[in-house]
Amino acid sequence: MDDDCDGRVDEEGHSLCSLPNAVAACVDGNCEIGACVAASADCNGIAADGCEEDLAASESACGSCTKSCPVGEGCFSGVCGRQTIRLAAGAWHTCALRASGEVLCWGDNSSGELGDGTTVPRNEPAPVLDLEGVPVIQVSAGAGFTCALSASGSVFCWGGNASGQLGTEPPTSRSRPMLVRGLTDVQQIATGFRHACALRVGGTVSCWGANDFGMLGDGSLAPSSTPLEVADVHGATQLSAGGLHSCAMMVTGGVRCWGRNLEGQAGHGSFADWTLPTDAVGLPALSSIAAGHFHTCAVEGTGRTWCWGRNLHGELGDGTQDTRSTPGLTRASPDVAEISPGATHTCVRLRSGLVQCWGLGPLGDGTSAVRLLPAPVLDVEDAIDVAAGRYHVCALTRAGAVYCWGANDVGQLGDGSNDTRPTPVRVVGL
Description:
Blueprint: E1 22-27, E2 30-36, E3 40-41, E4 53-54, E5 74-76, E6 79-81, E7 84-89, E8 93-98, E9 103-107, E10 122-127, E11 136-141, E12 145-150, E13 155-159, E14 174-179, E15 186-191, E16 195-200, E17 205-209, E18 224-229, E19 236-241, E20 245-250, E21 255-259, E22 274-279, E23 286-291, E24 295-300, E25 305-309, E26 324-329, E27 336-341, E28 345-350, E29 355-359, E30 371-376, E31 383-388, E32 392-397, E33 402-406, E34 421-426
Antiparallel strand pairs: 1-2, 3-4, 5-6, 7-8, 8-9, 9-10, 11-12, 12-13, 13-14, 15-16, 16-17, 17-18, 19-20, 20-21, 21-22, 23-24, 24-25, 25-26, 27-28, 28-29, 29-30, 31-32, 32-33, 33-34
């Protein structure tokens, strides 16, 4: 047999005929495509260049030879879109950060938190204005306001400003981004109900906005529209802001929290508010921290998860409804990559890409039941990011698609409707 198509019966030392990205075979003296490998395809019908299209990444043949992506969109795992890289879920709105640095938001807009220059709610994503040319690397959504961090270390905020949470004198709201004064070295931002915090180069933290429970961490209860340095926090590596409290993970792997603690969300073993940072007790070295509305959670390097604070709806995931003022292990799978607590619920992203949720509300399992133990979210199998809002949750898949579920009264799910969704639905255009 002439397997190498050289006109002679097989000779020792000669290679078989081969074509790019194909299993080739010699047919009547011609090297032909027998089958394409992986996600490749022969779209032009020319055997010589093999299976020339990558259906997983080709903008001219995305998912099939006949499907071209619209101008400005790429192909991600066979799906056209503008790749989303991070999500941020606020109380009643949601935002997505694109690889290009573009920011899109949807949902409630009564305070201008969508940043589109209006106060009109949107049930589909809309671009935030005035950030063209700003290399945005993180977005954080609070309750009625939003902030973005640029690669240069500057912070921009927009939306409600009743307590100075935009970094400017209250109470005037802003429907377009504005620069927060005095911040040029920020590495991470976090937003709560009416306050915001920034992790700065060197491991210090600054906060601004409302301070009625001490969530600015300066030892007072006075609000401030100017960022104030949090006392006794040095060597912070990560930051998270809950509804009315704030937490920082330290270089040691420990956690310090401050602000409202009526539900035990500071993790110190008491239920007294803290105007200065206090240590959460009994924790191993952690890899991440996440503050919810009235509870706090963390992930350790092994993938085990810890939660503490309010547990009226089972949001701590320990199988009980007992509020805890000290950290306790959840019953989630011990291979968690990310945790995101909301108001009455908590969700985790497993290293496998699956998502689990527990508590009350948007659990994504098709029911409205209270779950004291983690339950799998339906139809999400390859998540790379998860973000829990007040009563809704969104997940970003490896293909770049965004799915949301839960409350949708102001369009925070972004599916073009205002219908509550007990299971994930895809956000329009993402």
